[in-house]
UniProtKB/TrEMBL annotation:
This is STAS domain-containing protein. Keywords: Membrane, Transmembrane, Transmembrane helix. InterPro entries: STAS_dom, STAS_dom_sf. It comes from Amycolatopsis acidicola. The chain crosses the membrane at residues 53-72. It comes from the Bacteria. The keyword Membrane applies. Gene3D superfamilies: STAS domain. Pfam families: STAS (PF01740). Residues 21-122 form the STAS domain. One of its GO terms (molecular function) is anti-sigma factor antagonist activity.
């Protein structure tokens, strides 16, 4: 099979505002080198004027290095701006990436198994 015969990675997203100043961006599919620019164009602008941003990755089936890099950059920007950034990582393929990053010395990202848990601590 040639590389050109591989299917294009798919990434879909949704947005919700469950509370004042709280934005939830949900993603489903694959977050990798091919889809990270799309996710970046959604995540970074929402750091302007937000009090809290929750990235719901519970619908992801794959998280590559480009996705990890994006979240770490968003976390850095959020911290500098005083914004609370949280991550919902339902699948083991997502939680494992953040566990390994933290073990390697990267700044920890608050990770929750369920969206309700991430939002509960917002209250």
């Amino acid at each position: 099979m040639s590389v050109s015969a591989l299917p294009e990675p798919q990434l879909s997203w949704s947005e919700d505002r469950p509370g004042r100043g709280v934005t939830v961006l949900g993603f489903a599919g694959e977050l990798d080198l091919a889809t990270a620019p799309q996710a970046e164009s959604l995540i970074l602008p929402r750091l302007d004027g937000a009090r809290s941003l929750v990235l719901d990755f519970s619908g992801l089936t794959f998280l590559g290095a480009a996705g990890l890099n994006l979240v770490l950059r968003a976390r850095l920007l959020a911290t500098r701006r005083g914004i609370d950034l949280r991550l919902v990582a339902g699948a083991r393929c997502v939680t494992r990436v953040f566990e390994l990053a933290e073990d390697a010395g990267w700044p920890p990202v608050p990770v929750y198994r369920r969206l309700a848990d991430a939002l509960e601590e917002q209250a």
